[in-house]
Amino acid sequence: MNKKILIADDDINIIASLKYMLADEGFDILAVTTPQAALENLKTQSVDLILLDMNFQQDTTSGAEGVKLVEAITSLDLNIPIIMMTGWATIDIAVEAMQAGAKDFIQKPWKNERLLNAIDIQLALANSNKKAQRLSQQNKLLTAQSHPENRTGIIAQSPTMQNLLSTLDDLAKSDMSILLTGDNGTGKSMLASYVHRVSLRSKNSFVPVNMGAIPESLFESEMFGHVKGAFTDAKENRIGRFEMADQGTLFLDEVANIPLAQQAKLLRVLEERKFEAVGSSKSLHADVRIISATNSDLLTDITNNTFRQDLYYRLNTIQLHVPSLAERAEDIPALAEHFLHSFSAKYHRVCPKLSPQAITSLQQYSWPGNIRELSHLMERVLFTCKKESIDAEDLMLTVTTNNIESLDDPTLSMEQIEKKALAQRLKFFRGNATETAKSLGLSRSGYYRRLSKYELD
Questions:
Q1: What is the per-residue pLDDT for 59?
Q2: For a Cys staple, 437 with which of 74, 204, 347, 442, CB 3.0–4.6 Å?
Q3: Preceding omega of 109 cis (within 30 degrees of 0)
Q4: SS3 string of 64-76?
Q5: Residue 284, H or E segment
Q6: Among 331, 301, 304, CA closest to 315
Q7: Helices assigned H by DSSP within 45-152
Q8: What are φ and ψ of residue 391, in 5° steps?
Q9: Residues with Cβ < 8 Å from 109, sequence gap 6 or more?
Q10: How far apart are CA 121 and CA 104, in angstroms?
Q11: Is there a single domain that holds both residue 38 and residue 82?
C-alpha cells in the first residue's frame, strides 16, 4: 500500500507542484488549504506524514498558525511525523516548530532531493517506532505471563533496562555469582531481589547485607554467627547471615567496603562452601547463591591493594552494569509518575500530573543521585506544588543553566545551531549513536556525515 501524505498549504500552486512530484514517487496525496480542514481530515483519515506550511492567509508573517497547528496535531497523539515548510526561514521559527513537535524543517523554494530525503527518513523512523511499540507490547505480555508478580515495582521501558532484565532472567536459572556495578541509587539491591524472586531458590530466604555498615570487629559474628559465651557480650547463640540465607540468596551490598583482613575469611567460605560460628568448631555448609554489588571500581581497588583479586574473581562469575538514571532517560517519566502515585497514596493527597515541560526537565537533568534522588524530588514536590499540574519551575532543577547551551542567540547561523543541537543530543544520550540519530530524525549515514562535518567525531 502506498504511503499517504497530507499537504496543508494555502497556496494552490505549491500544492500542485508537490502533488506532481510526490505522485511521481508513488505517494498518495491528500491536500487541504486551511488548518481547520487539516484537523478535520486527520480525525477521519489515516495518513503517514504531513507536509505543513508555517503560514496561512490569516497570518502570513509570524508562523504562529503553523506552530499552533503542529501543537493541535501533536495533542491528538497520532504519532504522525510533521515536516514544516516556509518561504522565509528564521532561527526562532525553526526552533519553535521543532519544540512544538515537528520532525524536520524545509525552506521554500525546496530542493526535491532534500525534501524526498527528509520524507524517506521520517517515514522510516515512524515505521521503526511502530515496530518497537508492537515488540514492547508483546514483551510486556510475555513478561506478564512468565512472571506475573515478579516485576511489580520495576519500571524498565528503556532498551537498556529491558536487555538487563532479560539477561538477569537467564542468569536466575543458574547458581552463578553475579556482581552488579553502577552508581549509588541505581537500584542494584532491587535487581538482586528480583533475581532471587525468579530463581529456583525463590522459596527460601533472600538476605541482604550492607557490608559497609558492619564494624570490622563484628564481621565474623554478623556473617557466620556466634555461640553463647564466645566473647563477653555473647549472651546467647546468634545465627549469622550465611545460615539465614541457607538454600537461598545472600546479597552483599557495597562489597568494596569489606576490610582487607575480613576479605580472606569471606573468600574461604566462598571457596570451601563451609564456615564455623564464632566460638564453635562445628562446620556448617554454606548452600547460598551470592549476588554482590558495588559503586566502586574494583579493578582499581585491586591495583591499590584494597581489594583481593582472588575474591574479585570469586564474586565475579559474571559482571553486569546497572545504568544510571541519565543512561535510561526513557524510564524517567514512568518512574516519576510511579513515585508520585506511591507518595500520594502514602500521604492521602491528591496526585498532581506532570506537565510535558516538567517531563522534559526531568529527562534533561543529570541525576547525580539517580533513582533515589528522583524519589525524594517527587515526595518533596507533592507537598510544595499546590496546583493540579506540576510545571518545570516547580521542580527547581537547574537544567537550562547547567546542562543545555542556549540556541536562542540571534547571531547564530543555521549551521551553528545544527552543530550545537547535535552536540547537546550527543551529550544527552552519552554518545549513543543510534539514540542520537533517532532523536534527530537522521539516518546513521546522515548522522555520521554531520559528525565529520562539525568535527564532533
A1: 53
A2: 442
A3: yes
A4: HHHHHHHHHHHHC
A5: strand 283-285
A6: 301
A7: 64-75, 91-100, 112-146
A8: -95, 170
A9: 87
A10: 10
A11: yes
CATH of residue 309's domain is 3.40.50.300
Contact between 287 and 247 (Cβ < 8 Å): yes
Query: How many separate domains does the chain show?
Result: 4
Is pTM beyond 0.70? Reply is no
Torsion of CA 160, 428, 377, 345, to 10 degrees: -40
Answer with the one of 321, 343, 376 that is the final residue of a domain: 321
Residue 281 predicted with pLDDT over 90: no
Domain that holds residue 449: 414-453
Task: Write down which residue in 302, 321, 340 finishes a domain.
Answer: 321
Give the residue among 199, 216, 304, 305 at the shortest CA–CA distance from 265: 216
Q: Which residue has the cell 575469611?
A: 265
User: Of how many residues is the chain composed?
Assistant: 457
Strands (E), 134-182: 178-181
pLDDT for position 137: 45
Name the strand (E) or helix (H) holding 249.
Answer: strand 249-253
315 and 329 inside one domain:
no
447 and 438 in contact (C-beta within 8 Å)? no
Q: What pLDDT, in 10s, does the model give residues 64-85?
A: 888 888 888 887 756 789 998 8
